[in-house]
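Raw record, unedited: Uridine phosphorylase
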Amino acid sequence: MSTHIGAAPGDIAPTVLMPGDPLRAKWIAETFLDDARCYSEVRGMYGFTGTWQGRPVSVQGSGMGQPSLAIYANELFRDYDVQTAIRVGSCGALTEKLAIRDLVIASGACTDSSMNHIAFEGLDYAPVADFGLLRDAAAAAPEAHVGLIFSSDSFYAARPELVARMVDYGVLAVEMEASALYTLAAKHGRRALAICTVSDHIVTGEETTSQEREQTFGRMVEVALTASQPG
Ligand SMILES: O=P(O)(O)O[C@H]1O[C@H](CO)[C@@H](O)[C@H]1O
Ligand SMILES: O=c1cc[nH]c(=O)[nH]1
C-alpha cells in the first residue's frame, strides 16, 4: 500500500483514468470496464481496475485541486509504476466558442498555483500534454476543442477579471488539476493528458447537475480509452 492508495503492487494497471470525482470513477468502472474490482476505498477516493477491450485499465479518483491530484499522481507514478494517466474531468467554459457538454482536450495548462514557482524557484515551467496522447485523442474526437486550459487553485475566483484576461490569450476553459498532472508526468517520465467536458458555462450561466457530472460525461471516457491504446 502507498500512503493514500490501498492497493498492493500489481493491483493498478499501467494506464489510469483520473476523474476528480470518486463517484465518477465508480461510474466509469461499472459502465466501461469488464470485471472491474475496487482496489482502494481510502478516504472514499475510490480506485478500480478492470479491462477495456481485453487490456487492463484502472480508474482512480483524484479529488479536487492540484494538491489532492498531486498526492494520487505522485503515488501512482512512484509506487505503482503507472505509465499513462488521463484526467477525465469537468470544466467551466470561458468563451462562447464552447457549448455546454463540449469536449476540451488540453494541449497545455496555465495555472495560478504556486507549486511550480516553488519547484522552479520562480521560473515559469510550461505544463503540456504528451504529444502522442494529444494527437490520438484529437483524432478520436474530431468534434473536440483542442487548446489551452486554466488550472485554477480556486473554484470561486477572487479576481474573475484576471481569468477573463486569459481568454484574450487563447485559454478555453477552467478546471483545477491538469497543470499538476502534466508537471508530475514530465517529472517521472510518464505520459499524461487531460480531457474535460464542459459542465458549466461562465459566459452564459448554463450548468449541469452534480448527478450529470457524475454519470453522463461518457464521451470523454471513450476518447480517453481510445487514445490510451498502445500503437
Ligand atoms: O469534475 P472534476 O473532475 O472534479 O473537475 C472539476 O470539478 C471540480 C470542481 O467542481 C474540480 O475538481 C474541477 O477540476
Ligand atoms: O473548476 C471548475 C470546474 C468546472 N467548472 C468551473 O467553473 N470550474
